[in-house]
Specification:
By secondary structure, this protein is mostly helical. It has two domains: 89 residues, Arc Repressor Mutant, subunit A, CATH 1.10.10; 35 residues. The protein has seven helices and three strands. The longest helix has 21 residues.
Length: 153
Amino acid sequence: MTSVSSAPDSCDSLLLDNQLCFALHSTSLLMTKVYKPLLQALGLTYPQYLAMMVLWERDGLTVGEISTRLLTDPGSLTPLLKRLEAEGLLSRTRSREDERVVIVELTEQGRALRDKARDIPQCILGASGQTLEQIRKLQADLLALRSHLQDSL
């Protein structure tokens, strides 16, 4: 019978619970689950909510600008935007200068949805069990990590 040593060995670096990527991934999954009922009340999915937040910040962006802001591929964003358009929350029109460019604008209904979403950040803060200062520090650390990872590509 072999005994399991409590001393760290070279394989500790491969333990799932020692992985930053898993901590980020599992936290992201749980964050999305916390958002789900809040967003269902608005008729949005989490990815749709992210796109709407971009447009609430600055309306009249191109699909490319939205995808850049969300760090996603424009091709994967198009079906999401089409669904939001079908729901009456935004309109998509081709640019007169360049027909390949699609401009996305909120409708009145899309702008009104912003008011309904105002309490969501406070609900998320409450669910986090953190103070606003702790959340801001964590966010700054994650943004710095994201920047370093982008630079390494």
